[in-house]
Amino acid sequence: MKGAQPPPGPKGWPFVGNALELASSNSSSIIHIFHKWAQEFGPIAQFSLMGTKQVVLSDGKIANELFVKRGNRPKDEGWRRQRHFMHSAVSITSINNKYQSLMDDEATFTLQQLLQSPLSFHDQFLRYAYSVLTSSLLGFSIRSASDPYIRYNESFTAEIMKSFRPDCFPSNVFPFLRHLPHWLIPSLRTMERLRKEYVAQMWTFRSKIEKRVKDGSATESIYKHFLLNRADYAVTDEESVHTFQAMIDGGTRSPHNNLLMFLVLMMEYPKWQRKLQQEVDRVCGDERMPSYKDIPNLPTVRAIVKEG
Fold first, then answer.
1. Contact (Cβ atoms closer than 8 angstroms) between residue 294 and residue 284
2. Average confidence (pLDDT) over 122-138
3. pLDDT tens-digit series, residues 230-244
4. What's the rounded Cα separation, in Å, for the pair 308 and 99?
5. Main-chain dihedrals φ then ψ at residue 138, nearest 5 degrees
6. Cβ distance 137 to 125 under 8 Å?
7. Would the CA dihedral through 93, 97, 102, 106 be positive or negative?
């Protein structure tokens, strides 16, 4: 933008910029580096990696403005189609009582498991996050945190997350390495393997669900609804599998982490736990579980959930 000033940030070294400082970091220490920069330079800080400018946002309101509000106006037609498709898929669960009832059942099952084994909260929250998503999106439920689907997905996601670490993938810090032969840079071979596996996984899910829809064995799910009403959606097949995979990726770890954070906050602020319990008891009594129908009458619960 003409006349705009570049954001402030650490100076770094000639040519390499801040690459050396970041190359010596890991997934934990890099957060402290970004936090230090935010305190010193403000919520928008710019740094350099081998001449490539990068920006760190450390303010939630600014991030929301850029990625949510302005991000709702994508210039690329394919990206616009995928966003619209994702909104349509999510809206199905919000207006269809069938999916809301399914989520209530998952919550009840999770609470039963927690009563039997309170110390297994981490695994139970993980199973819940996965099963809510797989039940509504893909048409199958998960009853154990040791389920092969969870084990594979968690392992694969952990490997994908390593791709952001400069000590594992130096091409993140030194972009010129990306142009070298894969046989010379082992991390590039790993990245290509992960990419192929990721793409194969997307299409495998698509093929499995298509087969079940054709033979009549598919249970109700958003994916089934999409395939049966394919003509109603403008996305290409490739865009659709990418969108479904994005919902799987974003719909498992984030809810799991949110549940864990909620648990921590309730221990840290027990008075708010009591307020929530009192509100639920007042609306639902002690003979039934709260459900989606109670949401309008639970303002405190609703506010805490949205804050999370």
1. yes
2. 94
3. 999 889 999 999 999
4. 21
5. -110, -20
6. no
7. positive
